[in-house]
């Protein structure tokens, strides 16, 4: 993905400040600004290999011709036109002149954000901001929240100065209780009106739990009335990318529109399973669902609480069922993990020599770009492949 760089053309009166504020919150940068189309065509020369997002204001039918000249001068670059939409004929003329998205004037911030979000997805652009890693358990009780917490706490291995952990998807949160924290706000407090939340508001909403790590947990003192809208989640992620170098999402696997839509907006997905047969089955189901739903984020598979001595699937069998998968066993350390949970602390503060931390380090190196593969345990009898392979036609 290329980062978002914008060029403002004929954005007048009070609009420049409003547009720049929205672009800044989105993680975009303003590369140049011109008073009219002729100036932009004559004087702007962006790198040929990089796209630019043009934002222009139309005040009347005569400006549609200028929009056409702008589109002709910079082919292949998206254009957001802020324009009064009086009738269908005007709308059609603006689109045919080359506008990628139209924002009705007077401009409402929420409508500009929607247009910006659609353009960046359509043209494979991204904010110049933090990385979002979604951690999702494929079955209940597989330890995904514990892994998400410790991945966020270990995020300095990705070079992060600041990390934020956000709990999404469940009607009742666990993170605040797990850490023994009294958070300032929860996701439920924000999701009701995310359009009213800006960077300053999100900065006040998160709760620091240690140096370089803040949290925004799910509701823990009441049951959330409903799942958040996908639009609200996208707005939260846009702001969170600006707040921290690494954003870790602890996500409940809900299989709904918001779940898949959120995963389409992240950079990396870590699916958490156990070596139990139902959990491996769930992992395969979720993997196939991500493919069918068009989720293109990089995927990693964490087999939590793994032990070669326990009955269940071996790594060799799981690798056979999931060929070419980025598979990472996370060894079991029940005592250390339980002590950390009871004390309300990340694992490193309680059991710095835990094998879980060693394995998470390898996972984080893989997420950061290292080509690391886990050891393959001896293949036993292939019974798992025979049973699950029938279900998935492998």
- Quickly count the helices: 17
Structural class from helices and strands? alpha/beta
Mean pLDDT: 87
Biggest sheet descriptor:
8 strands, mixed
Q: What CATH architecture of the largest domain do you see?
A: 3-Layer(aba) Sandwich
**Number of DSSP E strands:** 15
Rounded radius of gyration (Å): 24 Å
Strand content: 15-25%
Adjacency order of strands in the biggest sheet: 10-11-9-12-8-13-14-15
Q: Regions with pLDDT < 50 over 5+ consecutive residues?
A: 370-381, 387-394
Name of the level-1 CATH class of the largest domain: Alpha Beta
CATH topology-level fold name of the largest domain: Rossmann fold
**N- to C-terminal distance:** 33 Å
Any idea how many domains?
A: 2
CATH homology-level superfamily of the largest domain: P-loop containing nucleotide triphosphate hydrolases
Report on the structure:
The longest helix is centred in the C-terminal third of the chain and has 16 residues, at 277-292. The radius of gyration is 24 Å and the shape is elongated. The protein has 394 residues and is an alpha/beta fold. The protein has helices spanning 15-26, 37-43, 62-73, 88-97, 109-122, 144-153, 175-179, 187-191, 199-205, 230-243, 257-263, 277-292, 315-321, 334-343, 347-350, 355-367, 383-392; strands spanning 2-3, 5-9, 29-34, 53-57, 79-83, 101-104, 125-126, 131-137, 163-168, 207-210, 213-216, 246-251, 268-273, 298-306, 327-331. Helix 13 (315-321) links the parallel strand 14 (298-306) and strand 15 (327-331). Mean pLDDT is 87; it is low at 370-381 and 387-394. Helix 1 packs across helix 5, helix 2 runs parallel beside helix 3 and helix 13 (315-321) runs parallel beside helix 17 (383-392). It folds into 2 domains: 2-126, 3-Layer(aba) Sandwich (Rossmann fold); 131-392, Rossmann fold (3-Layer(aba) Sandwich), CATH 3.40.50.300. An 8-stranded mixed beta sheet has the order 10-11-9-12-8-13-14-15, with helices on both faces. The chain has a 5-stranded parallel beta sheet with strand order 3-2-4-5-6, with helices on both faces. It is built from 17 helices and 15 strands.
């Amino acid at each position: 993905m290329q980062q978002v760089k914008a060029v403002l053309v004929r954005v007048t009166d009070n609009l420049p400040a409003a547009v720049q504020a929205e672009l800044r919150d989105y993680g975009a940068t303003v590369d140049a600004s011109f008073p009219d189309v002729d100036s932009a065509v004559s004087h702007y020369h962006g790198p040929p290999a990089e796209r630019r997002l043009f934002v222009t204001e139309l005040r009347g039918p005569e400006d549609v011709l200028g929009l056409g000249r702008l589109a002709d001068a910079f082919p292949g670059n998206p254009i957001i036109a802020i324009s009064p939409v009086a009738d269908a004929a005007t709308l059609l003329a603006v689109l045919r002149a080359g506008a990628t998205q139209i924002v009705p004037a007077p401009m409402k911030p929420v409508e500009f954000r929607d247009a910006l979000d659609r353009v960046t997805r359509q043209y494979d652009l991204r904010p110049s901001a933090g990385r979002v890693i979604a951690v999702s358990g494929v079955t209940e009780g597989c330890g995904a929240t514990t892994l998400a917490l410790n991945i966020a706490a270990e995020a300095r291995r990705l070079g992060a100065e600041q990390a934020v952990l956000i709990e999404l998807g469940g009607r009742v949160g666990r993170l605040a209780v797990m850490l023994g924290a009294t958070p300032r706000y929860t996701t439920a407090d924000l999701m009701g009106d995310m359009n009213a939340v800006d960077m300053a508001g999100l900065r006040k909403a998160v709760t620091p739990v240690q140096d370089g790590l803040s949290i925004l947990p799910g509701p823990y003192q009441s049951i959330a009335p409903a799942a958040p809208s996908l639009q609200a989640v996208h707005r939260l992620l846009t702001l969170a990318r600006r707040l921290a170098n690494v954003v870790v999402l602890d996500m409940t696997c809900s299989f709904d529109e918001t779940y898949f839509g959120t995963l389409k907006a992240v950079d990396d997905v870590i699916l958490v399973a156990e070596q139990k047969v139902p959990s491996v089955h769930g992992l395969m189901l979720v993997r196939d669902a991500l493919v069918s739903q068009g989720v293109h984020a990089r995927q990693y598979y964490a087999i939590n609480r793994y032990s070669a001595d326990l009955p269940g699937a071996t790594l060799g069998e799981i690798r056979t069922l999931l060929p070419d998968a980025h598979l990472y066993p996370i060894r079991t350390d029940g005592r250390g993990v339980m002590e950390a949970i009871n004390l309300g602390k990340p694992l490193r503060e309680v059991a710095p020599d835990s094998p879980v931390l060693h394995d998470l380090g390898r996972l984080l190196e893989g997420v950061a770009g290292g080509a690391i593969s886990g050891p393959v345990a001896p293949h036993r009898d292939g019974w798992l492949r025979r049973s699950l392979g029938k279900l998935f036609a492998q």
